[in-house]
Amino acid sequence: MREYLYMALVAAVVTFLLVPLVRRFAIRIGAMPEVRDRDVHTTPTPRLGGLAMYGGLVAALLTTHELPHTGPVLAASNTVVALIVAGGIITFTGFLDDWWGMDPFIKMGGQIAAAGVLVYNGMRLTYIPLPRDWGPPLFLDDLSSAVITILVIVVIINAVNFVDGLDGLASGIVCISAMATWAYSIRLDQVLEDNRINVTAAVMAILIGVCLGFLPHNFHPARIFMGDTGAMLLGLVLGSSLITVTSAADPELIVDVNKFGALIPLLIPLSVLVLPLIDLVTAVVRRTSRGMSPFAPDRGHLHHLLMDLGHSHRRSVLILYAWTFLFAFGLTGMSVLGVPVIFFPLIIVLAVGVLILMAAPRWRSKGSHHAPRGPRWRRRVSPEEDDGGPPTGPMPPIRAESTALR
């Protein structure tokens, strides 16, 4: 566990120290566009925070070879090289988009290229494990494996990018998701091989550190935004966990272990992104139903709706943190305790309860219409002023009776 803490600490410290340098660089090159109608911030804020995140990611990955337990595990795969190269591609793509702007289809090309690097280095879904009652695992041929892997990673990249609309929102949600995935991977590896060292846990520890190192600069009021540079990088690294946590064990063993986790291993990494995925799907439906491009920006994201209900900036972010925590650790706990997958709808019911609580500010605003106004003050008029004569001297003000709003 100390090695995971070490990797997270290196990623956090390097990211934290790089942010001020990146901020000055972003201001110098003009990567701080004017405020748009759909934005919630009121002053131009530099972007490119993802450059600092990439620096923290690379620094932590390069130090893993010195670790006695985690180093050999990562050295046995191409994970370090794959994430550095793929992360570089997605960071450069995001950098150009944040600086100059980029056509959505060109940006998607960069996302596919980055995901393709992971596939080329062996990070791919080779099978889809199923619960024991559903039959044997669904094995994939090379083409299907490559296509599905790239598709899943691109979806997760855009899901994180879609939810990045409030200060500290995307980095906090990804951090919570990484924590849940880390816990699940540790438990899975411990049950299968009586071991707690695995690739997924190592990568998630680094991702947690990157997010924690960036959050102090990004929480409201943010001094820098991660931009597409950081949002797409976080999505790429988090998406890679779905691949590594699934391919880390024999599929037959995964099926046997379903007694402690009737949820399929793919469900955990995907469900921890339930908020970004819901936001992504609803945004596409909303925009296409209006005759707009699915990539056209608007002001209908979940965080916009929360603020329209009357929540403050920070409260909206904390509510969305709670949503992510509920789904991520709820499913992780269900898997570890062996709760059947049929109980998953209970989490949906709990989420609906959270949504009802979100409407509380609106109820309070309705009740405020009947609240009395505070007392009003007026100056007493002297008899001379009443008769039109000159005032004989200043008169002290007195308080009039309070009047209620009618």
TrEMBL record:
Keywords of the record: Cell membrane, Magnesium, Membrane, Metal-binding, Transferase, Transmembrane, Transmembrane helix
EC main group: transferase
Residue ranges crossing the lipid bilayer per the database entry: 6-27, 48-67, 73-93, 105-123, 143-161, 168-185, 197-219, 231-249, 261-285, 317-336, 342-360
Gene Ontology CC terms, in alphabetical order: plasma membrane
Pfam families per UniProt: Glycos_transf_4
Bilayer disposition of the protein: Multi-pass membrane protein
InterPro entries: Glycosyl_transferase_4 (IPR000715)
Binding site for Mg(2+): 161, 228
Cofactor(s) needed by this chain: Mg(2+)
Keyword set includes Cell membrane: yes
Subcellular location: Cell membrane
GO molecular function ontology, one term from the record: UDP-N-acetylglucosamine-undecaprenyl-phosphate N-acetylglucosaminephosphotransferase activity
Sequence segments annotated as region (Disordered): 365-406
Superkingdom field: Bacteria
A GO biological process held by the record: cell wall macromolecule biosynthetic process
Name used for this protein in its record: UDP-GlcNAc:undecaprenyl-phosphate GlcNAc-1-phosphate transferase
